[in-house]
Amino acid sequence: MYILFEGIDTCGKSTQIELLAQKYPDIITTHEPGGTAFGQKAREILLSDSLRSKRAELLLFLADRAEHYEEVVAPNRDKIVISDRGFISGIGYALANGDFDFDELVALNRFALKGHFPDRIILFLTNMETLQERTSQKELDGIELRGLEYLLRVQEHMKESILKLGIPHLFIDATDSIENIHQSILTYLKV
Ligand SMILES: Nc1ncnc2c1ncn2[C@@H]1O[C@H](COP(=O)(O)OP(=O)(O)OP(=O)(O)O)[C@@H](O)[C@H]1O
Ligand SMILES: Cc1cn([C@H]2C[C@H](O)[C@@H](COP(=O)(O)O)O2)c(=O)[nH]c1=O
User: Fold this and answer.
1) Rounded mean pLDDT, 19-41
2) Residue 187 contacts by C-beta under 8 Å, 6 or more apart in sequence?
């Protein structure tokens, strides 16, 4: 089973994946961008926000996704694979960048994933106050420096995209406590 943990920067995805990994060591945890050797190189370029063309940026995220699918997800489809981000980030950030069409983005991502969209998606939804508080406590990368309004637009696109695609999902209130969120995830995944 291939499960995505999605949401904008600092919403709490890695914290929850780490809790699950501690409890269930058999779960395979991974992330995009950067879950493969190629992905680590791509991540360095992507997070510096140095590409002038947003199409070039999109294509590099897609290349990372295709390699990640081939190397990490496909060989482990019989196990539980939890990825910190995936194609919902791919669509959400691209739509917030502008100049992209939803159906075209879905088709490009379907191509990168060889038609295999995730089985379930857990989306963390935050608000301006929590986003301000958590981003103020870290050094921001090039994408985060695009601003908090931008990130909240990404979040709306992520939510709408999941609803349009009809993939089984859980929406989480990211402002809730770490323990409450952990319990909601355990209940949803029935692990
Ligand atoms: N439910 C929560 N309540 C309070 N603080 C939290 C909660 N979840 C996570 N945090 C804190 O918020 C910060 C960001 O969390 P985390 O790294 O898990 O987010 P993320 O979604 O993986 O972020 P990014 O996408 O930027 O890597 C961390 O300092 C973490 O301890
Ligand atoms: C997969 C994916 C990611 N992004 C953005 C989202 C974040 O700002 C960074 C990844 O950083 P993190 O520390 O791993 O959360 O990349 C994107 O714009 N498009 C994508 O497809």
Assistant:
1) 98
2) none
